[in-house]
Amino acid sequence: MVTPEPAWAPAPLPANLPGAVAVAPGVHWIGAMDPTLRTFDIILRTANGTSYNAYLVRGEEGVAVVDTVKLEFAVEFFRRLESVADYAEIRVIVLNHLEPDHSGALPELMRRAPQARLYISTRATAMLKALLKPKATDRPLEYQTVGTGDEVSLGNRTLRFLHTPFLHWPDTQCTYLVEEGVLFSGDVFGCHYCDSRLFNDRVGDFRFSFDYYYAHIMRPFKAHVLAALKLIEPLRLNLIAPTHGPILRDRPRRYVTHYRELSTSSLAERIGNEELSLCIFYMSAYGSTARMAEAVQAGAEAEPGVRVSLYDLAGGETTPFVDLIEEADAIAFGSPTINGDAVKPVWDLLSSLAVVNLQGKLGAAFGSFGWSGEAVRMIEDRMRGLKMRVPVAGLRIKLIPTDEELDECRDFGHRLALALLGEGTERVIEMADL
Q1: Considering the entire predicted model, what is its pTM?
Q2: What is the mean pLDDT of residues 220-228?
Q3: What letter would DSSP give residue 389?
Q4: What residue ranges define each of the domains in the chain, with the CATH number in brackets?
Q5: Chain centroid offset of residue 20 CA
Q6: How far, in Å, are 297, 331, 411, 429 from residue 389 at the CA level?
């Protein structure tokens, strides 16, 4: 197989760079450290840098390499690999995830070990071709796709694959070393925390980094996390080897338990499964939108089976509200129109919702206005962009609401509650209505 020439030029390895590190019998860490990184994928802050963890597994019938590193760190990766194996021994290359920070050294590794077979998930084929970009004159890419339960043997060592899509890309999978109880988990159970002491019982306190990573990487895919945990929890786990952050050898199962806690709603435990929740967030300049919000609340909570919560965005930070919205069944936003727009705290909260899965949740908007009243429709557009349902047309009232208009607000809230309960007739909002 012909693969592209590496985009990097080999450089001398620093004399003080440690070699491969044994993490379990027959298993070595051959990754790289990136201590000066301060931003990852634009959106994540990395105060402690990160690591790109890759692993080598030795069996009686050959060697497997599990994941590689970011291209800029390929020299370190290959020097560590060479300290514990010859390229001719490599029979298996596993990529649990094809994002560039894990696959950067893959083309050169395939060139150096052409006899090795590449194993990827069934969802990774298109990404692999985009990564290697083979020319028409190249031999076809040689790889094998695998799913849950598929295995590859190294003689006395067995690698078993677990299909765990959307953690956090469609192609992600985990690989389990059966005989040693080692889970090569990919991005799952990882974090951006660089510490050369490598193991969770030796590094500094990385709890914040672990939870921060989950919140920004895994949280939007909670349903997929829970599906993956069903595959992982029954396994014997002596060690979890993620692709970023400390290797979890001390009480690894507690991190699995923590993932389940982070991925499980606590609201149902508090209000019961028989009730649905509606959260109303509002901001009011002169009290008119506030009065509307109170009337919407009154109309909604008159319907049995709906628990309504009312929050004034002028009273606090928006960040804590993200947790409430994620667990709520429906969300309504109230905003006045100022300078042809919704107010900033509403947009701040809406922009924070990219980290949670809102698909299918019910959304609604209302507000008072003085001139043109664009805020309500702009909020509705944003909610649709977040894949929320907007079954009831937004309510706009000019200036101070009258008693009759407050009755409209109560009716608006009641219709929201009925839609939430599945008892109302949902109205599809057409573009012409906008």
Answers
A1: 0.79
A2: 93
A3: B
A4: 21-263 (3.60.15.10), 273-433 (3.40.50.360)
A5: 30
A6: 19, 10, 19, 10
